[in-house]
UniProtKB/TrEMBL annotation:
Organism: Ectothiorhodospira magna
Protein name: Uncharacterized conserved protein, contains Mth938-like domain
Gene3D superfamilies the UniProt entry points to: MTH938-like
InterPro entries, A to Z: MTH938-like_sf, NDUFAF3/AAMDC
Family matches, as PANTHER family: NADH DEHYDROGENASE [UBIQUINONE] 1 ALPHA SUBCOMPLEX ASSEMBLY FACTOR 3 (PTHR21192:SF2), NUCLEAR PROTEIN E3-3 (PTHR21192)
A Pfam family that the UniProt record links to this protein: DUF498
Coiled coil: none
Length: 125
């Protein structure tokens, strides 16, 4: 899916996505990553099971976003209870959804000026 959205220079927006890839601004990525309006973590490499735990999201939790959108690939999966508790303890919202939905939702929340993080699991071939 190609998306068009005006954005300020230096801000990370998801401008397209499809099975196994996501485009941040003009760069296509084919591996798991975390995107925030002012931060891009491209070396986030947990397995899907690890992505559902608090440990794998430590780099995201350290940046204290208002909300984390966890894209779990093509289907929505349930996270580890510890991840839910960690987010609640820090006052961080957590939404778990499939990766395409997380991509779409990220841009909406980012356009509102909110501190959002999308941790995206991209299925590999």
């Amino acid at each position: 899916m190609k998306m068009t959205l005006e954005h300020a220079a230096g801000r990370h927006l998801i401008t397209g996505h499809g099975p196994g890839w996501v485009r941040i601004n003009q760069t296509c990525h084919r591996h798991n990553l975390v995107v925030m309006p002012d931060t891009l973590i491209t070396d986030w490499a947990p397995t899907l099971t690890e992505a559902l735990s608090a440990g794998s999201l430590a780099p995201v939790l350290a940046r204290t976003p208002d909300i984390i959108l966890l894209g779990t690939g093509p289907t929505r999966l349930t996270p580890d209870q510890g991840l839910l508790q960690q987010c609640m303890a820090q006052g961080i919202g957590l939404e778990i959804m499939d990766t395409p939905a997380a991509c779409r939702t990220y841009n909406v929340i980012a356009s509102e000026g909110r501190k959002v993080a999308a941790a995206l699991v991209l299925p590999s071939d």
